[in-house]
Amino acid sequence: xxxxxxxxxxxxxxxxxxxxxxxxxxxxxxxxxxxxxxxxxxxxxxxxxxxxxxxxxxxxxxxxxxxxxxxxxxxxxxxxxxxxxxxxxxxxxxxxxxxxxxxxxxxxxxxxxxxxxxxxxxxxxxxxxxxxxxxxxxxxxxxxxxxxxxxxxxxxxxxxxxxxxxxxxxxxxxxxxxxxxxxxxxxxxxxxxxxxxxxxxxxxxxxxxxxxxxxxxxxxxxxxxxxxxxxxxxxxxxxxxxxxxxxxxxxxxxxx
Length: 256
Prior knowledge:
This protein is an all-alpha fold. It has helices at residues 2-6, 13-41, 53-86, 93-101, 104-113, 123-146, 155-174, 176-179, 186-198, 203-206, 223-227.
């Protein structure tokens, strides 16, 4: 609708009516893209916590694939569809419909890409993105209309949506730590440190020589006790022949 407002005074009325008829029909497909973003991404993309990056990219590609199939269908049935809805005098609108239908993959993919940013990005970002995309798109469309290249009017919409996608990709990359959780939080770092400390090797358990339990001192015989021999077990040496035997010494008694 913005392009019709900006181009209303630069295009012939009959050409503008043909273009408006095609874009009015295409708006229904644009609304389906917004509905798909809400239905598909409601549980994963619109939550405040971190989301999975691969899942987000996969949803964007899935939405773009559905839109591409819809583009092919519109390309095949553009002529009979426009004639059946608006009549034979709007048969030329099929050309604008085929050209503008190529926007559907961009519209669907951009709806999924920007979903996490709707609750995270600032109002300044959204306003700047919209104004920049509108300005570039309107400039390209106006240039095409000025040179009477009316089939290139939709190029302004292509430039506008590509600008939106570029803004969203840059913002997603800048906020990757917040959206995808790629940066470790302090709690996560503390947990990782605990796990690293728990997994560190223990010196006693991994030592090649296992530690032995202390042995009580009383259980280890000393050198003196091991080599000593009881006196009773040593036999008396026999007296040499011819030598008088030494009488046993009697204990001295006191006669008193």
